[in-house]
Write a structure and sequence with these properties.
heterodimer; A: 616 residues; mainly alpha; Cytochrome C Oxidase, Chain A; 2 domains; 21 helices; 65% helix; globular; B: 244 residues; Four Helix Bundle (Hemerythrin (Met), subunit A); 4-stranded antiparallel β-sheet
Chain lengths: 616, 244
């Protein structure tokens, strides 16, 4: 198969202004515009009002975002479209990174594979930043009354750690792999809207910049859920946080639309919906759920900003507002968001299980039903986060029921995974190891979730470390394991090399044991009544906290080994060839690395990708 | 490969999407726009939820009341700032805004949508580019008028002068707050429409948009109509779910 594209000669070099734009100009643009906005705000707004500093902070955030977009080149396309000078073929090829080598990874590149790699790097940066904060938190909690960090700083660490990790995990699987492999999996040249693809990534970078700024401007002592009314009283860090969420929502909305439109309109001939690789299904279900959920996030943070900058009363009781409104809007987003994170990871594991056991995905339609059912139910459970708040007690029963029903589609996940692995010719490589780790951890995550969905138990455990341990089993023990399995699985397609097995296994065991040590001990702390988010605690929690901190250090060590494995394998790992797992889906049938626009000619699909015949 | 045959006999040649039929590209863009409108519907629902929630939890007119001092043409922010001794604060009721102003903004928005729709239809069916350019310009001017009216509406939302901690400030009741977010959202949409409308005018004048290449006008028309419809929904809700 020849896949080298022969483009028609073009008259101009293409690219225009974009030739001078990259991450550095984006940073410069962001900083300059942020400073300009700050300067204008300082000198034009009424500095006698109590909301003055918040208004300046929001203006500065807007300046940063617009400047960043201008600097990276995100507004070139809309600008040119406005004046009727649309991109030429040469421009499109330049934006796609043709013949630009590694420089294209620092640019507003529209090639979906470059965007996929950019997401891999971004996920690592976010996980690294969030991980450092996690280590600081755990070091503070090593002993009772520790003074490793100031209490206000600690509170800020809690909030920013939470949000950074949420952002990291939202993009950990969907970001790299819905971009890198999904277009190839369905037999397309690229995403449906390549420029929107680049926009979604660089907007995420702008949002991450705003989020990290909260630490530099007085922090955010209100937890990642930023519940009102305490969030109304927080310093200007809250403004940067809210703006980060709004900008992030733009990123996810654009990405979600692009993913769904790509799969629905760019499938190659014969790629019917029933022949789609299961990971593609997971990607579009998660994207659709994100499209539903994140507008609530945008709304709640937008009106939070209005409360803080122009003295509205959405969440101010004395003005007729209600903190419960904030809680409702937040959790209308907050619970579906868990499944926006989880579903792509599970779908990737379905894919891995099938390839590594040489069997079709067990009950393919059940897998789709499980993911769809989970997405559908997730929009009906938000109030279980508010059982103890006193909001609508009569609705407690129905919300308890809908939450417990979640265990049915979740159970289907286990059925499909175990059914696929059952009596399979299992290839015990690195991706498979992380898959088994996921299965183990997800059982604990799921069962403890059922406890928390019951109102009598939740009344006892709400706000304790038990809850923290539960959702860390979901996010770290399950989603992160799924994300690393996906990384190990598709790494050869990205780099042309295997992810080093030895280092990968060391990493796995460190992280796997670390997770059990950390969070099982945290369950004990919670059951004994230790509250979340406190910077100090009673002596009776000393031993379990010490164990938890040691476990956290193990996880960090394991993640550092994994980082080393990624870097060293990318540079000089064992060459893998184009199809190291002998899989049948299209991404493995193109050369490695895949050429620009993936296929010289589009393939015709005649069967689903899971007919292995049981052989390797 | 055993299953997914990369068989040249049945291959359709593509060149990075550039040889695709325009109708296919239009279909893809239309789907994306519908998805965007779907997200916009959720956002609007969240804002209406906010309006209805605050109305629901504030019975007996309290969503229009705050403890503070009245603000009107005479008793402005500056007036209170210049007073040495503030009078004692008490429960103030703000007067609701007239629903007719909401309907006026919506009416202008609907009118602009109808003008653009007719222009786009004319371009698509008759290829009349000059008429499209002018009508798109009229529609854009109308939407700019709607934007200006929204700004007027925002500036006239009833406020109260209240004490917060150790300082005083102008503040909005729950009612005014809810109206602000709905009006502000409409304003953002009008600004976006003004950008799109002007782009249509420029593209048409430059000959990029023609009777054969009308697809972008079709997309803009779809969004324009949605903005008008959303205005009708918001006005209907804020009128029927009583303001008193």
């Amino acid at each position: 198969m020849t896949t080298t594209l022969q483009h028609a000669p073009t008259k101009s070099k293409g690219g225009g202004l974009a030739r001078r734009q990259n991450f550095l100009t984006a940073l410069i643009g962001g900083v300059v515009f942020a400073w300009l906005a700050w300067f204008i705000g300082r000198h034009t707004l009424d500095n006698t009002t109590r909301t003055f500093s918040d208004q300046v902070a929001v203006l500065t955030s807007c300046g940063w975002t617009v400047g960043f977009w201008l600097g990276i080149g995100a507004l070139n396309g809309p600008g040119r479209w406005f004046i009727g000078r649309d991109h030429t073929r040469a421009d499109d090829l330049y934006y796609a990174g043709e013949n630009q080598g590694r420089a294209r990874y620092w640019k507003y590149c529209t090639d979906h594979k470059v965007v996929g790699v950019q997401y891999i790097i971004m996920t690592m940066v976010l996980l690294g930043a969030g991980g450092i904060l996690a280590m600081a938190i755990r070091t503070q909690l090593l002993t009772p009354g520790n003074h490793f960090v100031d209490q206000q700083v600690y509170n800020g660490f809690i909030a920013v750690h939470g949000m950074l990790m949420i952002l990291a995990l939202i993009v950990a699987v969907a970001g790299p792999w819905a971009n890198f492999v999904v277009p190839i999996m369905i037999g397309a040249h690229d995403m449906a809207f390549p420029r929107l693809n680049a926009l979604s990534f660089w907007t995420l970078v702008a949002a991450a910049g705003l989020l990290l700024t909260t630490l530099a401007v007085g922090s955010l002592p209100v937890g990642w859920v930023v519940l009102a009314p305490i969030s109304n009283q927080a310093g200007v860090g809250m403004d940067f946080f809210a703006m980060a969420i709004i900008v992030f929502t733009v990123s996810t909305t654009v990405a979600g639309i692009n993913t769904i439109a790509t799969v629905m309109t760019l499938r190659t001939k014969g790629m019917t919906l029933s022949r789609l690789p299961i990971f593609v299904w997971g990607s579009i279900i998660a994207a659709a759920l994100g499209l539903y959920a994140f507008p609530y996030f945008l709304t709640v943070e937008a009106i939070q900003i209005l409360d803080r900058t122009v003295s509205t009363s959405f969440f101010v009781a004395s003005g007729g507002g209600a903190g419960w409104l904030q809680a409702n809007l937040f959790w209308l987003m907050g619970h579906p968001e868990v499944y926006v994170i989880l579903i792509p990871a599970v779908a990737a594991l379905f894919e891995i299980a099938a390839v590594m056991s040489r069997k079709p995905v067990f009950s393919y339609r059940t897998a789709i039903a499980g993911m769809t059912g989970l997405a559908g139910l997730s929009v009906l459970v938000w109030a279980h986060h508010m059982f103890t708040t006193g909001w609508a007690p009569t609705l407690g029963g129905p919300f308890m029921l809908t939450t417990e029903l979640i265990s049915i589609p979740t159970g289907l996940f286990f059925l499909v995974l175990l059914g696929t692995l059952w009596r399979g010719n299992i290839w015990m490589k690195l991706p498979t190891l992380w898959l088994f780790g996921f299965v183990f951890n997800f059982i604990i995550a799921g069962i403890t979730g059922i406890y928390l969905s019951d109102i009598p138990i939740d009344n006892q455990l709400h706000g304790t470390m038990f809850v923290t341990a539960h959702f860390h089993y979901v996010f770290v023990g399950s989603v992160l394991f799924g994300a690393i399995a996906a990384l190990a699985f598709w790494f050869p397609k990205v780099s042309g090399r295997y992810l080093d097995e030895t280092q990968g296994k060391i990493s796995f065991w460190l992280v796997f044991i670390g997770v059990q040590v950390t969070f099982l001990a945290m369950f004990v702390s919670g059951l004994r009544g230790m509250p979340r988010r406190y910077s100090s605690y009673s002596m009776i929690f000393e031993h379990t906290n010490f164990v938890t901190t040691m476990g956290a250090y193990m996880i960090m060590a394991g993640m550092l080994v994994l980082l080393g494995a990624v870097i060293s394998s990318w540079r000089k790992g064992e060459p893998s060839g184009p199809n190291p797992w002998q899989a049948n889906s299209l991404e493995w049938l193109v050369p490695t690395p895949p050429p620009l626009e993936n296929f010289d000619v589009l393939p015709t699909i005649k069967e689903d990708p899971y007919n292995f015949g049981g052989k390797r | 490969m055993a299953t997914n045959t990369l068989n040249a006999q049945h291959q359709e040649h593509h060149d990075g999407g550039h040889h695709e039929p325009p109708a296919k590209v239009y279909g893809r863009q239309k789907m994306a726009l519908w998805l965007f409108i779907g997200g916009d519907i959720i956002t609007m629902s969240a804002m209406l939820f906010t309006y209805l929630y605050l109305r629901g939890v504030n019975t007996q007119n309290h969503w229009m009341s705050m403890v503070g001092l009245p603000v009107d043409k005479v008793h402005t922010y500056g007036y209170y700032e210049n007073l040495a001794n503030l009078p004692s604060q008490h429960l103030i009721h703000v007067a609701p805004m007239s629903p007719s102003f909401n309907w006026l903004v919506t009416g202008v928005s609907v009118l602009s949508a109808l003008i653009f729709w007719s222009a786009e239809r004319n371009l698509r069916k008759n290829g009349n580019r000059a008429a499209f350019t002018w009508n798109a310009l009229f529609a854009t001017v109308a939407v700019v008028v709607a934007a200006v009216l929204s700004v007027v509406q925002l500036r006239h939302l009833p406020q109260i002068y209240v004490a917060v901690n150790d300082s005083h400030t102008l503040s909005y009741t729950a009612y005014s707050s809810s109206m602000m977010v709905l009006t502000g959202s409409a304003l953002v949409h009008f600004i976006l429409l003004a950008y799109l409308g002007l782009a249509m005018v420029v593209r048409s004048a430059r000959g990029v948009l023609t009777g054969e290449k009308w697809f972008h006008a079709g997309l803009v028309r779809l969004f324009w109509v949605w903005v008008a419809v959303s205005g009708i929904i918001v006005s209907a809700v804020t009128t029927t779910v009583n303001v008193h």
